[in-house]
Amino acid sequence: MRLALSLTWRLGLSGALLAALASALLGAYLFSSFEQQLLRRDDVQLLGKMRQLRQLLGHSGTPELLVLQADYLRDTMSGESNALIEIHAPPAQGGRVLLSINPPGLPLPATAPLPLDQEPAPQHLSHWTTPDGVPAAGLTAWARLGEDAVPMQVEVRLARLYPERRALLAEYRWRIAAASLAAGCLAAGLVLALIWQGLSPLRRLRAQTAAIGPQSLGLRLETADAPAEFRPWVEGLNAMLSRLEQGYAQLNQFAADLAHEMRTPLATLTGQSQVMLSRTRTEAEYAALMESQLQELERLNRMVDSLLFLARSEHQAMAGALQAQTLSAGAELARQADYFGDLAEERGLSLQCDGDAQLQAEPQLLRRALANLISNALRHARPGTCVELRVRLEPSRASASGSGSGTGLRPRPEHEQPGVVLEVINEGDPLPPQVLSRLFDRFYRTDESRHRDAGGSGLGLAIVRAIMALHGGTAEVRQVSAERIAFVLRFPALASTQSSLHAQSCESSPPNHENG
Fold first, then answer.
1. 284 has which bridge partners?
2. What are the extents of the domains in the chain?
3. What are the pLDDT digits (tens) for 74-88?
4. Which of 12, 43, 154, 473 is 20 to 30 A away from residue 251, measured at CA?
5. Alpha carbon of 197 to those of 229, 253, 291: distances in Å?
6. What is the pLDDT of residue 306?
7. Alpha-carbon distance 369 to 477, whole Å?
8. Nearest to 53 by CA among 33, 32, 22, 80
9. What's the distance, Cα to Cα, between the start and end of the chain in Å?
């Protein structure tokens, strides 16, 4: 099973590793610098000893006296027990050893000796390590022996062992390792503390989210205290909570409205049945009861069908399954006008169609939406007035411009087609803005008793809005004047269709419709 570490620990361990790595690199740099400084110091001292040794040999006299001065030469080397000296006769005299101060008996490397007139320099030194791992350095140079007119030249081999350097570097290495480890641990603690403090806004956000539930969807996360990197995330969560709250409220309201709508017809059916069963009835009374109950059942059936349609329309899959066709908007309005002609005449109303254009829609859904709007207009229109059914073209809103000659619209390219607008306008009592804004809500009625008597379910306009959403359009309502209300359906523009707008008379054909 994979071990899941918290963000604090992951960041803390990462910071500790980075701090340890940085400390190790810094320690390695310091160690290398210290080692080079020790090496340069020792080299300078060794070169100085070679110069001093040359001067002493110039005053030593004969080789025999040189042997007698061995202790003096050792003292000249500051009593260093790790200094190694060998003085050889020139090759012409056999190269014999005149003096040897080499207690360990280590072989000294025989490099090319420096001429008498050349001063020793760092590049003349050779460095090596003894079999015991002790670092050493040395050089070979010619020196004058004695102060005769023709002095004797001897070969001087000078070397120095540095065991103290090895010990010092070993101790320094351990100190650097310990310091790096301590720095890593300290950095880990500091990083963990800083991260813990830095993540405190997230812990507060976690506490706030834990307090949000079905009964407290109105709570929101605090954005002011959130880090800048998390602020868009917090704002997105708040927006999601707003949508959830709105949807939850709509669901609760829908459930309450549905229960209210179902209770009335069920109570009616129950009451009628109880009254009829209270005593013996005639066959005509039973027939009247059955007819009344059948009407209530049909109303319930229409309500259930409407609710199922609204539920399916909320899924995007239904929009993709539409069988849209290119239709004549004027012909569809004429079909509806002919179907509702008798009902309009009974109520002392008239229907007038105006305009035509090509639009793309699913025929049955379009007819259902138009039927719902027209039946709603006939229900609310003032007797003796005319219900207008209009078709017009409207340029896409993106093409509107503040400049232009008279029209306020920029010239539209030939490939850009206008949108199609269908309007149902009736004269009736004016409605306040708060009522207009809710006309497309489910189960909303402006007059409860009148709608129930008319058999409406309060779902007709909600279905119209759902149908327009499936077509990518919109459904709107506006108060045209003090006594005129217009319901507007906006369809998107066709990709490639030549549309025209002209007046025509209405034709007829029966549609599908539903009471609003």
1. none
2. 7-169, 231-313, 321-397+416-491
3. 666 545 568 888 888
4. 473
5. 16, 44, 75
6. 73
7. 14
8. 80
9. 60
Residues 447-502: tens digit of each pLDDT: 654 444 455 567 888 889 988 988 889 999 999 888 899 999 999 877 533 333 33
Segment (H or E) for 12: helix 7-58
d(CA 52, CA 50): 5
Answer yes or no: CATH 3.40.47.10 is held by domain 321-397+416-491: no
Dist CA 226 CA 206 (whole Å) = 11
Helix (H) or strand (E) holding 11: helix 7-58
Residue identified by tokens 């859904």 is: 365
Q: Where are the alpha helices (DSSP H) in 381-476?
A: 433-436, 448-453, 460-470
What Å distances lie between residue 377 and 11, 340, 387, 464, CA to CA?
67, 11, 7, 13
**What letter does residue 114 receive in the DSSP assignment?**
B
- Residue 481 phi, psi dihedral angles, 5° rounding: -145, -170
| Chain position carrying tokens 């803005």 | 433
Average pLDDT over residues 98-120: 85
What amino acid occupies position 405?
S
Please say whether the beta carbons of 408 and 373 come within 8 A. Answer: no
**Those residues with Cβ within 8 angstroms of residue 108's Cβ, 6 or more apart along the chain or in another chain:** 84, 86, 102, 138, 157, 159
Residue 508: predicted pLDDT: 34
Tell me the C-alpha distance between 460 and 424, whole Å.
14
Beta carbons of 7 and 199 less than 8 angstroms apart = yes
How far is it, in rounded angstroms, from Cα 73 to Cα 156? Answer: 12
Question: Identity (one letter) of the amino acid at 344?
Answer: A
Lowest-confidence segment of 59-68, 128-137, 225-234, 468-477 by average pLDDT: 59-68
- The confidence score (pLDDT) of residue 190 equals 86
Residues in a beta bridge with 486 = 425, 478
Q: CA torsion angle for 263, 266, 268, 273 (degrees, to 10)? A: -150
User: Read out DSSP for 147-186?
Assistant: SSSSPEEEEEEEEEE-HHHHHHHHHHHHHHHHHHHHHHHH
3-state helix, strand, coil in the chain (%, to 5): 50, 15, 35
Task: Give dist(CA 179, CA 20) in Å, integer.
Answer: 9
Residue 487 region, left (φ>0) first, then alpha (ψ -120 to 50), else beta?
beta
